[in-house]
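Quick one, T. Sequence first:
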Amino acid sequence: MSRRIRETQKIFKVFCEGSTEHHYIDEMRRQKKLTITLKLVNMEGGGYRNFLEQVKTDGTTNCLAKFIIIDGDRAIAEEGEKKNLRELLDYCILQNKSGRIPHFLIVNCPDFEYIACLHTPKYKGQNVAQYLTKELGYKSVEAFKANTKVYHALNTNGNSYEHMISLLKEENCFVVNKYSINKKLYEIKVSTTCYWEKLERKSSNINEFFEVVTGFNA
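Structure tokens:
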């Protein structure tokens, strides 16, 4: 009797900078049974350059795509970090042009806390720190960041990432990744464009992450 050939599972690799994003995506991965490997990047002492180094050195075996999820506030506040962000962006663009493993650079402006607030219908542009404490009931922003059940909190009782995505506007995004998916060939092609004049706008292209990982596993 012939031996059954074991099919190798293809995965998405997600690089994120904060524990909040890590907790959120990890719980989402479990609930939706997504093929995701999470990489938490330490930003201390290197900022966006730490992302670049880790993304460069991380392996690509059985990898469908890499998602690099960062906050834009560092580049807004520090000129040196803007240079580091440019290097990270240029690297992702180069990888996508090469046709090898696609790299999705996801930039939340100013940060993931703002994106979290967009999950809730009551958020109408209020101060993020005040909204997290007064409306969502956290003792502080730090307490929100430490919540290991953040995905559950932001996706129950009328809150949802679908609502968040509905509020995002592509015309405000600093980075836009146009992509096509061939599920039969396990192939994703990406073309990345950035708009530096939009860096300080409140925006995000994190919808691309949700669309790709949930769509591919549908």
